[in-house]
Amino acid sequence: MKLVIIPIDGAVYVDDYSYSRIDLTLCNIPANVHALQWNGVKGWIEFTEDENFNKPDNQIITELPSWANQAKIKWDEAKRNEETFLNFISENQPQTSGTQTL
């Protein structure tokens, strides 16, 4: 699974399918995280600049931090909500029959 998390946008991408504006506040993502990039086996965390305009080097990771797993759970919830909505829409389309002459 490819995973990208961009906290400031509330964006979570899983295998190139994204949702944005996800509420990630309860995921406890460190304030200095700009993004997480994960390719299924390894990845890195990108950081923001501090108040002195110093930006830490990317941190290489070989396992997802707990906050990334929480963000993935939020993505799963967004996907389920979208699927539920789309199913509702498709099941509640007006029924038509015949043709209409204008």
Describe the structure concisely for a colleague:
With 102 residues, the protein is α+β, with helices and mostly antiparallel strands. It has one domain (3-84). It has one helix and six strands, in the order E-E-E-E-E-E-H.
Topology (elements, then pairings):
Layout: E1 3-6, E2 11-14, E3 17-19, E4 33-38, E5 43-47, E6 59-61, H1 66-91
Antiparallel strand pairs: 1-2, 1-4, 2-3, 4-5, 5-6
How large is the share of residues in beta strands? Answer: 15-25%
SSE run: EEEEEEH
Largest sheet, in brief, is: 6 strands, antiparallel
Which parts are unreliable, with pLDDT below 50 for 5 consecutive residues or more? Answer: none
Task: Quickly count the helices.
Answer: 1
Structural class: alpha+beta
The number of strands is 6
The pLDDT mean sits at 93
Number of domains: 1
Global morphology: elongated
Name the strands of the widest sheet in spatial order: 3-2-1-4-5-6
- Work out the oligomeric state of the chains in this entry: single chain
Query: What is the gyration radius calculated from CA atoms?
Result: 20 Å
What helical percentage do the residues reach? 25-40%
Distance between the termini: 52 Å
